[in-house]
Amino acid sequence: MTQVRPKKSLGQHFLTDLSIAKRIAATLEPYKGLPVLEVGPGMGVLTQYLLSDAHDVKVVELDSESVNYLNDNFPELKGRIIEHDFLKLDLAQLYPDGQKFCVIGNYPYNISSQIFFKVLDYRDQVTACSGMLQREVAERLAAPAGKKARGILSVLLQAWYEVEYLFTVDEKVFNPPPKVKSGVVMMRRNSVTDLGCDEALFKTVVKTSFGQRRKTLRNSLRGLLPAGVPWPDAALGQLRPEQLTVEQFIELTNIVSSLRKGQS
Fold first, then answer.
1. Which of 35, 112, 251, 262 would be 101's cystine partner, CB 3.0–4.6 Å?
2. What is the pTM of this model?
3. Are 89 and 211 contained in the same domain?
């Protein structure tokens, strides 16, 4: 059986430990009634367990060599292999009329953060998202307030999802072995439908805060206020971004919004 050659340009590291693939597939067991979109299936190490678990699976694969391999070895995927760049794919067209679905994958390290930003764009449809990525990034996604690993994606994802770091995967179970360990995460859509603040401003506040993470928030966010408007004597302003919960970022966003409107 011809194997697919891992391509560095695509960030491909093929998982060789079947027990780990089975554990990752099992994360979607509670969502068996929903369609599943797998990102970057490669040679189908994860796909085979999704199919055996009777999930309604579609796969997105950019590598033509992998697409040929999947066509040759997984006849049950006929008509369900999408040869495309996931980051450029219109998921609402793939799952029309607001249809709910799940996302899973052994995500390419070089675009893993971008993948999760895209999932966030479709949060009203993506009910659950799980998979494996570089451990450092996986830990960041799940990092709670107070952890140094906390960053922009931590806050934006945790506003809409419950994010859990599940387990660590050693470098030796990949071909070729990456230079870092991997981590598996699970995201479950929470019940939030409205943040209670201006969402666009919320994103700006979060990104601006972490863009100058060594500064206190009153200093890093000063540029978001009109000239001459002082920062109020609010305790949040004395903190640094990694210390804040999602709820505190929402409160901070409403403070900035009020100051912009001239309501101190």
1. 35
2. 0.93
3. no
